[in-house]
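Re: duplicated header lines in exported structure tokens

Our pipeline writes sequence and tokens for each protein into one text file. With two proteins the header for the second block appears twice in some exports. Here is an export where it did not happen, for reference. First protein block:
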Amino acid sequence: MYNLVFLKKENDLNKVLKKFKREPRRCSILFISLWDKWCEKLVTDLKESYPEYRERAEPLYVVDSLKMPHSFVIYGTNKTPHLIQLRRDQVVSEDYLPRVYKSLKVNQAS
């Protein structure tokens, strides 16, 4: 279960990362480019799978390359979609599209 949070400024992502360092919890960041048809479809599928806010759900921060191009340097993102899952003691990085869908527990509609 995820709560989708679309970040608009690079400062917002910096705040999320600082908060994670202070209070390590589960956190996921999805780097996308909305000009890409695969990323656009992924976002549509995410919105259908997680339409409303759930209190105990993990936040999924969505970072768009058009709004926040410099943020892609943080985790060496050079391919989209790129999912980063931050856990207490590890960082899991995934950029293979079927595995991104599987990690996010979203059905890949045809």
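Second protein block, exported in the same file:
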Amino acid sequence: MFRNLEAEQARFSYTNQEMAGKLVLSRTSYENKKKTGKFTALEAKKMCKIFKVKFDYLFATEDE
């Protein structure tokens, strides 16, 4: 859903399991949230901090 999130995760070489751990989620929950885009505000803020990027970049969608 969010190609920049996928790109940053790959750039940092984080697995879905590692990202889930950083967000205190199960791997399955993290993967589902990646598919649906239903991250909480706190989770989104945490990922922006982890990747050192702005929200608008990290969560840009394909049609923007």
